[in-house]
Amino acid sequence: MMTKEEILQKIERTIGKDAVPESEIWNRVRKLCEDEFQQFLPNSPLKPAAQFVTEFEQMRGCQTRYIPTDFYDLDKLLCGGFSEGEFVVIGGRPMAGKTLLLTLLSLNISKTLPVLFLSYELAEHLLFSRIISTLSTLPIEKILQRSTLDSAESLLMKDALQQLENRSLYITDKRLNFDMLIADCVKQIEEHGIKMIMLDYIQLLCYSSNRKYNRDAEIDEICRKLRELAKKCNVCIVAASQLNRGVECRSGDAKRPMLCDLRDSGGIEEHADKVILLNRPENYGILTDATGVSTKDKVELILAKNASGSIGEAVLLFDTLINRLVNKLNIDVFKNRLSELGLDQFNKLVNDWELKEAPF
Question: What is the spatial order of strands in the sheet that 87-92 belongs to?
Fold first, then answer.
């Protein structure tokens, strides 16, 4: 490695002392820089197309590695689940269910793969309480005030804690600046084999205390580096993002979120491999959809960008009783069959089951 003085001396020798035009001096400097820069380029020869064909044929019998979410409609939409090495953004307005969805995805996926949850919004103990509430089906108020639990509720709490012990889930609420966050993620990936990173949420990240960017450029750089981290370490990063208030200024069905509603930067849309937008029509007083079907408890997951497939929509239901998103099961066939058999009394049970069926 040359010192600064040695570099300057080499430049002076290259320029020489002969009388030449200024353009020739700069030409010599340019050629020197190009030659010296070659040593820093990676020694990786280009692959001919024939080699790609051979490798593709060898991989045809191998199944692509997907990370299923256990939300059936969403997995179908994603052709099996999320992929390793991709950067996914989940956008939504406040109260749309971003943190809840990230929490449920973490619980589902951590049954089989190590998951790191980076919570910049909720304190660690509050996020942990939400997780226990989800697993136990107890209201969050009961979890925060443990003295109010009766014996049955205490058993539910104990079972939830045991379930959590069997999951490879790592939670942190450390508010690191962005460069330190990236370094910490690499460390956790190496130490714990992390394959999935959940981040809540992008707009709370700060690139550095000494900002040299405007906010749009800062968010753009953050998303670019998150995508680089995902590809370099072969992990899937799922990050929540706020949407602009403009969504609420539109009327009717136009309130459905769009890619342009992502807050702060077009860089989020540009760098994300997938963008999922959450929509709860009920929050805007829209009680039925265009076909007249009730929107009560309906949560739409709009796959607005998919770099590796088609776009579309999946639907979950929000169970207000236990504050959980659940699969919307297609049980019309069962309802019709029960009616044919004269078992109408089971229809209410089936309806209840549709709301309470959990993905884990």
Answer: 169-172, 115-119, 196-200, 236-242, 87-92, 274-279, 298-306, 312-319, 324-327
Handedness of CA 34, 38, 44, 50 (dihedral sign): positive
Q: pLDDT of 85-121, one tens digit each?
A: 999 999 888 888 888 899 999 999 998 899 999 988 8
CA dist 313 and 187 (Å) reads 36
Phi, psi (degrees; rounded to nearest 5) at 286: -90, 105
Rounded Cα gap, residues 137 and 160, in angstroms: 9
Phi-psi region of 207 (alpha: psi -120 to 50; beta: other; left: phi over 0): alpha
Average pLDDT over residues 20-47: 77
pLDDT, residue 258, reads 83
Place of tokens 């995508």: 227
User: How far is Cα 64 from Cα 22, in angstroms, rounded to an integer?
Assistant: 57
Q: Which amino acid is at 251?
A: S
Tell me the CA end-to-end span of the chain in Å, nearest whole number: 56
Strand partners of residue 67: 82
Q: Please state, in angstroms and rounded to a whole number, the distance separating the CA atoms of residues 101 and 119.
A: 13
Q: What are the tens digits of pLDDT across the range 195-224?
A: 999 998 888 887 765 555 577 788 888 888
Res 44: pLDDT: 59
Provide the token pair at 326.
């659940």
Are 14 and 29 within 8 A, CB to CB? yes
Nearest to 316 by CA among 68, 70, 130: 70
Tokens of 161: 């804690």
Q: Is residue 201 reached through a cis peptide bond, with omega within 30 degrees of 0 on the bond before it?
A: yes
Give the predicted TM-score (pTM) of the model: 0.72
The tally of CA atoms less than 13 A away on the side-chain side of residue 216 is 5
Pairwise CA distance, residues 349 & 288, whole Å:
23
CA dihedral 80, 81, 86, 87 (to 10 degrees): 150
Tell me the two tokens of residue 62. Answer: 């191998």
